[in-house]
Amino acid sequence: MKRQDYLSWDEYFMGVALFSAGRSKDSNTQVGACIVSDENKILSVGYNGMPTGCHDDDMPWDREGEDLDTKYPYVCHAELNAILNSSTGHVKGARIYVTLFPCNECAKAIIQSGIREVVYIEDKYADTNGVKASKRMFALAGVTSRQYDKTSREFVLSL
């Protein structure tokens, strides 16, 4: 008899995105992303972090202060990292699972790469111009987005 309590595709891929977020060194915001093909195969993952070659200990992680003394001009967002990390270089027609709704810069990369659907957990910056721009661009480009339907199921890993 087949097991009945296995993870759904959405639970599985969002779980991978959440697990990836655990790699982020950012003490305030950890974001993870998982890009998936139409055939439910993982194409790439990413998390928010400093660019390759920029050692984490040498970079600022502050949220406030002079612009160049904060993380904002330097950090690569999870979505962009996932797109750039794709081993095939091809994510056209895919969907991306992300723990936080994409900013306008990531929305541009999502659209340009050909990703067709965004599944997200949180939209805590919905009132910002950046996220409003993301939603406008997604609508114009035909990229659908939907909030992940939390199942409240727990899945515990012991590492």
Strand order of the largest sheet: 2-1-3-4-5
What Rg is obtained from the alpha carbons, in whole angstroms?
16 Å
Element order, helices and strands?
HEEHEHEHE
Number of helices: 4
C-alpha end-to-end distance = 29 Å
Helix content: 25-40%
**Largest beta-sheet details:** 5 strands, mixed
Model description:
There is one protein chain. The protein has 159 residues and is an alpha/beta fold. It has helices spanning 9-21, 78-85, 104-113, 129-141; strands spanning 32-36, 42-47, 95-100, 117-122, 144-147. A five-stranded mixed beta sheet has the order 2-1-3-4-5. A hairpin with a 5-residue loop joins strand 1 (32-36) and strand 2 (42-47). Helix 3 (104-113) runs parallel beside helix 4 (129-141). It is globular, with a radius of gyration of 16 Å. The model has no long low-confidence stretch (mean pLDDT 94).
Structure, briefly:
With 159 residues, this protein is an alpha/beta fold.
Key structural traits:
single chain; 159 residues; alpha/beta; 4 helices; 17% strand
Strands, helices and their partners?
Layout: H1 9-21, E1 32-36, E2 42-47, H2 78-85, E3 95-100, H3 104-113, E4 117-122, H4 129-141, E5 144-147
Parallel strand pairs: 3-4, 4-5
Antiparallel strand pairs: 1-2, 1-3
Helix pairs in contact: 3-4
